What does this fold into?
Amino acid sequence: MENKQINFFKVKDINTVLKPFKKGSVISIDNVDIREKPKQLEIGLYGWYAICPSSELKNNKIHYFSLFDEPLLLFRDEKNNVRCIKNICPHRGASFYGGSISNGKLTCPYHGARFSAEGNCQNLDRITCSHIVDNNYDNYAKRIHLSQYKAVEKDSYIYVYFSDHSETDLNNINEKSLINNYELISNGFNLHDSVSEEVLVDFKCDWSRIIENHLDILHIFWVHGDTIPDKEVNKNVLVSFNQKININQKFIESIYYYKNNPTKEFIRIKYIPPGRVLIYKGDPSVSKYVQVLDHIPLGENKSRVIVRHYRKFLKNKLLNNLILFKEIQKKIFYKIFDEDYMILKTQTYNHKLGLIKNDEIKLLGEDRIINYFWNWYKKSEEKDNPWKLISKNKELNVYDEIIFKYPPEIKKLEIINNLSIIRKTFTRYAAPLIFLLLII
Ligand code: FES
Ligand SMILES: [Fe+2]
It folds into this structure.
């Protein structure tokens, strides 16, 4: 893969600048050396989005979601292939919500039109007079057709290719970007060695602010310093590091090396547009822990994040279950998201209302990757204009309940997770113990 180093930022002994590291400290970074004009990311806001883990889409179930406020749905056809359909019935525009899916056939709840997975209406006589159908069947069949976006499954994710228009014939979809770019294996993941867990969270805030947050390393020490179980992530001590940024047409990558051991990576953050961020704890070839963060622009101030983390330790399933590893990880994730959410909401407010003027903010060396991201986002939004389909009626939130599946009320999730921990602790420890005592 082409991969050219363009910038090498030296962070001037950040420990001496930041000690004691307290709120309001000024972070000063110099020796920024721009050797070459950066290459541009080729992919814009139209491209492949990981929509959900494969396990979320059960047979004969519909998964409702939206991209840039366009209502969409996923289901599996008779061959188990994933279909992404525009949630608009081609008869009179009803939503399929409340309809049904059976053996890969979608039935509209309004007048009962039934569509094959390819999109053909199979019971035209239900929605028009039979003599018209008899005379003009071909004409009708051609006109009444589901609109689709291309969907594929890879690495146990369901991806959708979002573009400026849906298609009635999927063979016509012109793939400007190859899905291979997102393949975990070509991004240094050795899936056979690892176990993974997933957390899905919906936020009522701007999509781009969440990506920006996941590209930002500095806040990790400050915002999450008390939560992340890593001895090097600490509120009071900021680890000193050098930063290297790689950029090519397919991704931007920021690598942080320890200051006192310049060959040792602390963290590597890779952004693959439009929606994926990969975080490697150390060099990917030896990293024991990697995170895949997918960002889904559900709509204006409606965003979903899927976090999947792979780890190479504790592969034993029984041991994992006994120590409630999954549940504890989930708990930590929700706490981390809760911490970010407070920041993201105010970020959204300041940016969306245009309150920030260029001369009011100072981007420092560490913020360089954020700057690349902002530039990319601004350009992509102007070029692709993904919001052009949306009605400006902001009060119309009829889809929110359907689409906001992983509720943003973190407290509620926290309670559910705590209850699950209590229940599982009881069934795995207390119940067998009571049972044993009774026998004795
Ligand atoms: S709107 Fe769907 S069948 Fe009439
Ligand atoms: Fe964060």
